[in-house]
UniProtKB/TrEMBL annotation:
A biological-process GO annotation: lipid biosynthetic process
Top-level division of the source organism's lineage: Bacteria
Phylogenetic classification of the source organism: Bacteria, Pseudomonadati, Bacteroidota, Cytophagia, Cytophagales
InterPro entries named among the record's database cross-references: Fatty_acid_hydroxylase, Sterol_Desaturase_Related
Species annotation: Fulvivirga marina
Protein name: Sterol desaturase family protein
Subcellular location per the Swiss-Prot or TrEMBL entry: Membrane
Primary location group: membrane
């Protein structure tokens, strides 16, 4: 619970640099239309998948696994209580999703504001210890099952909600 509280505080304060960059006109905002919000949320979810995969792979480098990511992996069977149970450094890295994409791709303020809600719902789904489709769910729906496997073995399934980046990197780095 202590690690989760620290992570929630870090995630909460991660909006401050974002607001600062918006006020300094480093980040431009699109109008808050329904279409801009939907497209922005799609962009943020896709970027979150890429960002999370990169951070998560880094966390499995032996040094970071031993000193940082081990906090999250103490939950061998993921539960909703493990959603925010991170070392403060990992929480800091994971909290940078919007600020790393918004200077490059303009988004609506509503999309940026709603993204944490979408993210936490996906995160709860991945940590709820429920295997969608009896553990045989196809593609995107398999993320709960994939994340259960990841927590129990601490190998493979480094993506947030998709196994796509795992499959791509496996094909690139494991050519025979």
């Amino acid at each position: 619970m202590w690690h989760s509280l620290k992570s929630v505080i870090i995630f909460g304060f991660s909006g401050i640099p974002l607001i600062f960059l918006i006020r300094m006109d480093v980040i431009g905002l699109l109008p808050n239309s329904i279409m801009n919000t939907i497209i922005g949320l799609i962009i943020l979810v896709i970027w979150n998948e890429i960002h999370f995969f990169m951070v998560h792979r880094l966390m499995h480098v032996p040094f970071f696994m031993k000193h940082v990511h081990i906090v999250h992996h103490r939950s061998r069977i993921p539960t909703v209580y493990a959603v925010y149970s991170f070392h403060w450094f990992e929480a800091l890295l994971l909290s940078t999703v919007p600020i790393t994409i918004a200077p490059i791709i303009p988004l609506s303020a509503t999309a940026i504001f709603l993204f944490p809600l979408v993210s936490i719902l996906l995160n709860y789904s991945g940590h709820c210890n429920y295997r969608f489709g009896k553990g045989k769910a196809p593609g995107f729906l398999a993320f709960g099952t994939n994340h259960n496997h990841h927590h129990s073995k601490a190998k493979r399934n480094y993506g947030f909600a998709s196994g796509l980046l795992d499959r791509i990197t496996h094909k690139i780095f494991n050519k025979s």
